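batch_manifest entry 22 of 60
target: SdpI family protein
source organism: Gordonia hirsuta DSM 44140 = NBRC 16056
requested by: lab member K.T.
priority: normal
notes from requester: please return tokens only, no post-processing; we will run our own comparison against the previous entry in this batch. if the run fails, retry once and flag.
--- input ---
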Amino acid sequence: MRTGSRLGDTIEGVHLASLIAAVVAFAFAALWAVIGLAGLAGRFPGNRWAGVRTAETVSSQEAWVLAHRVAAPGFLGGAVVAVLGGLLSLANRWGFVYALGGLLIGLLAVSMVSGVAVRAAQALVPPQEQSGGCSSGCCSGGEQTDGADHSQTGSADPAADCGESSCGSCALSGMCLPESQASDSHQP
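--- output ---
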């Protein structure tokens, strides 16, 4: 009799795992469907938690909307696959395998289309200004405007010429600031 109870516990455990996997699949499907439908309509608001979040897509509202319109079919496809995996999970004793497979295939679809969406958003972002330093006219890459020779400061301290001109070197990022301000400016 003891063997039958172990088998019953195993079957109940498998059913519970399938049920949990189905709920997780349905939750991801709902999230992906909302993102896909809102993105397709151009009404998916910028946020911190969901969507295609990269430097290119959050650079402007126009880039955000374009990226989510491009990504919408992938999000909707991922939602459909996750729902199918969740439904198959409920119909079979070892169904959690179907739910996990549906989630993985859905995540692959969302990931692939998100990459395409990022490239679309990159097309809207203007290329960075190419200069030798932090800005054009800076002594580290452009012409010196104050007549000073900043390449030969005569000091081993890289911040020795702080405050001598309006030139700000990228390598000196925060070195000309008092220590309390410099540490605050590097905090994420």
